[in-house]
Amino acid sequence: EKARVQAGTERVWMKSVMLERDAGDHDAAMRLLREALAKYPKFDKLWMMLVQVNKAAGRPDEARRAYEEGTALNPTSINLWIVAVRFEREEGQVTKARSMLEKARLKNSKSPELWLEAVRLENSTENKKLASTRLAQALQECPHSGILWSEAILMEPRQQRKAKSVDAIKHCENNPFVICTVARLFHSDRKLEKARTWFNRAVTLNPDFGDAWAYWYKLELQHGTEETRAEVLKRCGDANPRHGELWQRLCKTPGAKYADAKEKMLAVVRMVQEQL
Fold first, then answer.
1. Which pairs with CB-CB distance under 8 Å and at least 24 residues apart come from 166-172?
2. 96, 87 Cβ separation under 8 angstroms
3. What is the DSSP string of 212-261?
4. Which of 15, 109, 176, 182 has CB 3.0 to 4.6 Å from 206, enough for a Cys bridge?
5. For residues 196 and 209, what is the distance between their CA atoms, to the nearest angstrom?
6. Can you tell me the distance from the alpha carbon of 143 to that of 129, in angstroms, rounded to the nearest whole number?
């Protein structure tokens, strides 16, 4: 409270809300959010939190109202649109989620993140044909997007992934997302030294990419030694990554933000155990 009075920045308000949310006091979190949004209506992260707090409290109509108001005020916030789309998808409102993505793409052209969400929405409903169509449209509009090419590789049948990875590297040769996905392919094929080389390349290109560290450590857990595991763990700790799809998903769980990089990586490894 003292920090809010003295500094009063949007991030101080956001951290105050997070403290109440993590403590399980949804009413206090909601009260602070309303106060904060009255001061900072253009700070998209506050609207995202309002959606999530309402959802956690079992108030879907309020959550819906929050994202509608938030996207009207912040139409270029890709992350807020994605929070809204995922909310509707989890509520079983696929048609609404689909129309929202179309609206979001009209307001934010050439956004790989919105296209990726559209592809995954169709895959989540087992509409593989439409997912492939969306992916083709996405790569036409964003031909050098690493996250889209990575998804393209993983959507292929196993025996065709190598050919798709060659295409991906041609379009974005030094993209850490693509490099990490290729490393995962080598891992699944038990080409361990190649996998290590490509994981190392991914984290060298972007040491902040937490997911790559976690996938590499997963390899070392399965096939490495105490020494190789210790080295990856130390290097990850030194890099202190903050980004990556799975990494950031973990960081948003209550209490996770207090963990150090090594603890976060081990938690992300548990999340990816069943993946390629």
1. 171/143, 171/144, 172/144, 172/145, 172/146
2. no
3. HHHHHHHHHHHH--HHHHHHHHHHHHHH---B-HHHHHHHTSTTGGGS-H
4. 176
5. 16
6. 20
Q: Does position 2 have pLDDT exceeding 70, yes or no?
A: no
Mean per-residue pLDDT of the chain = 93
Query: Model-level pTM greater than 0.85?
Result: yes
Q: What is the CA radius of gyration of the chain?
A: 20
End-to-end CA, the chain: 46
CA–CA distance, 245 with 31 (Å, rounded to integer) = 30
Q: Facing residues of 209 across strands?
A: 243
**pLDDT confidence band for 273 (50 / 70 / 90):** confident
Confidence of residue 26 (pLDDT cuts 50, 70, 90): confident
* 16 Cβ contact partners less than 8 Å away, ≥ 6 residues apart: 1, 3, 4, 32, 36
Alpha carbon distances (Å) from 148 to 161, 177, 242, 250: 14, 9, 21, 22
d(CA 247, CA 180): 14
**Tokens found for residue 49:** 């939190």
User: Residue 64's pLDDT band (boundaries 50, 70, 90)?
Assistant: very high
